[in-house]
Write a structure and sequence with these properties.
CATH architecture: 3-Layer(aba) Sandwich
Strand order of the largest sheet: 3-2-1-4-5-6-7
Number of domains: 1
CATH superfamily: NAD(P)-binding Rossmann-like Domain
Number of helices: 8
CATH topology: Rossmann fold
Structural class: alpha/beta
Number of strands: 7
Length: about 250
């Protein structure tokens, strides 16, 4: 129970990596606020799983790219749990387009969801963490923010922004609050399922481990960073990526 007594907010937690992290946090003893945008039934399943393990959880709807929604989500979580010890800013979107053909609206939506939203969430939880001189912020980035990829310029740019934000914010809120990022490689989720078979085949051929990862291979990194084991990590980007990026 490495997170016993801790209260966590995980965005985009109704599916994929967010769901895996929320359930892993509950397994480790945390109380978990399960954020979702549209998938209320799926979020309820995550809550039920955590409660079945003996921990408290509830679902909270919010569009995390909207400032008012984020404020309401954080206020609701604090009212329920008393405080937020751990933020995992995971919610994101993924689509493909060549830059020369990319609509400005598609670029804006990618930056709004994948970069503006983590900023809004971090800004909303920080006052409480600063007042307590304690807290963990974990951003979910991507290895594509480190190396880039064709047809994913907008996604790569947003994720690179998260990595830069991680480093800067870690210095800004040290020494009492840690800020780290996780940069997964391609993971078998429904979000990745939307990518074309040709792109996935190209990606698979590049991976030293020869396969996409699973959510269960990413969630332990979040548990580590949120727990006492990760107390000396800040400003870091950890990469469960199958060797796609080697630092």
């Amino acid at each position: 129970m490495r997170l016993a007594g801790k209260c966590a907010l995980v965005t985009g937690a109704s599916r994929g990596i967010g769901r895996g992290i929320a359930e892993a946090f509950g397994h480790e003893g945390a109380r978990v606020a399960v954020n979702y945008f549209r998938s209320g039934d799926a979020a309820s399943e995550v809550v039920a799983t955590i409660r079945a393990g003996g921990q408290e959880a509830f679902a909270v709807q919010a569009d995390v790219s909207e400032e008012a929604d984020v404020a309401r989500m954080v206020e609701t979580t604090v009212a329920r749990f008393g405080q937020i010890d751990i933020l995992v800013a995971n919610a994101g979107v993924l689509d493909q387009a060549r830059l020369v053909e990319m609509a400005v609206a598609d670029w804006d939506q990618m930056i709004r969801t994948n970069l503006r939203a983590p900023f809004l969430c971090a800004r909303a939880v920080l006052p409480g963490m600063l007042a307590r001189l304690s807290g963990r912020i974990i951003f979910v980035a991507s290895q594509l923010g480190q190396k880039g990829a064709p047809e994913l310029v907008h996604y790569s740019a947003a994720k690179a922004g998260i990595i830069g934000m991680t480093r800067a914010l870690a210095r800004e809120v040290a020494p009492h609050i840690t800020v780290n990022a996780i940069a997964p490689g391609p993971i078998e989720t429904d979000m990745v399922a939307s990518i074309t078979p040709e792109w996935k085949a190209m990606k698979m051929a590049e991976l030293p481990l020869g396969r996409f990862g699973t959510v269960a291979e990413v969630a332990p990194t979040a548990v580590f960073l949120a727990s006492a084991d990760g107390a000396y990590y800040t400003g870091q980007t950890l990469g469960p990526n199958g060797g796609d990026v080697m630092l």
